[in-house]
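Backbone shape codes
____________________
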Amino acid sequence: MHYRHRIADKLLENKLKGMGAVLVEGAKWCGKTTTAEQQAKSILYMDQPKDRAMNLQLAQINPDLLLNGDTPRLIDEWQIAPELWDAVRFTVDHREGDGQFILTGSVTPLQDDEDVEQGKKIFHSGAGRIARITMRPMTLWESGESCGQISLEDLFGGSDKMVGINNLELQDVVWLICRGGWPKAVDQDKDIALGRAFDYYDTVVNVDIKEPDGVVRNPERVKLLMRSYARNQGTQVSLTAISADMKANDRDTLDDRTVYSYLKALKGIFVVEDVKAWNPNLRSKSAIRSSDTRYFTDPSIAVAALGVGPTDLMSDLNTLGLFFETLCMRDLRVYAQALDGEVYHYRDSDGLECDAVVHLRNGSYGLIEIKLGGERLIEEGAKSLQKLAKKIDTTKMKTPSFLMVLTATGKYAFKREDGVWVVPIGTLKD
């Protein structure tokens, strides 16, 4: 299969130049191993059936044998033998040179004291030795659906000369939401591609949910949690409210602690990825809400959790708006990461909200409202952005690099006379 360029390619290349090892982590099927293979000089597949038992044994008694090979050496699904984490860290300390190892995994390493006491074989954080890259499913730019004529990097650079032509209609965007950014689905026939997210969902529910800690969980409860998340994506709904939503369909006793453990497991395998609140300096005394906004790593997971499809979403524009927001957050996160940035949300006690704030390490930031499209919604988004921009105390922090209404529809991407960008998602790239 033809390898499609990933934004993570450059990130991995750069990290290998400055660190002894790099961990590439993220959801299963998002392309971690394939991307790592492009730069590896030798490879150890820990879960290869014919070698798995021997690999596990060696990891316990003589992990150095597994680490021998041309560098960068890729250790795929390293978490199968957690002992390898400290072995890699130790080897990096005692070898000269960067770019020794690439680790790939779909489970977050367990690090806290409780885990160690319970016998988990990870005793060092890896700080200063092992860099981290989070990979996500493909953005529309990576999958070839975005023309990429509007660059997030150029927006931060102050460019106002860009114009983009969007080739995606609303029905195209809806289909892309349902297909998701799974690399194998991108090159498959449409009917087959739509099934990949459902296969992923089934695997999470029945198999992967136990991987972070080995705890066997009730598949029906996993389904309830994922359905509740899907119904509440793009909101700051509390864990208590999610728990209550689940209880309505669960006859057994279900407390918040149990729900939290299930949610922690889903986060540990990169199924859900909430967005933290942005806390700027304001001229006003408005209180900033600190709750996370709920999102899946990919919108197709929510599609599968609710058992819907393109026709269902096209008939319910309110629900479609939430799914579209998840799609945009996926892409913005990938684009922001390429620029050394993160994505946040904003909401204050006055009811003013901003769907996405892309904040770079150098202090620059852009404010983004996400709307399906249409003149009325775009105008609402633009006014909201301008209101927030005026609230920010620019004597204590930078002015926004740009204001953007990110849309599903619209023929063109352009900068309005009031300075607000209107950008269809089908024109955006890093």
About this structure: Residues 317-338 form the longest helix (22 residues). Confidence is low (pLDDT under 50) at residues 110-119. The longest strand covers residues 353-360. Residues 7-135 form a domain with the Rossmann fold fold (CATH 3.40.50.300).
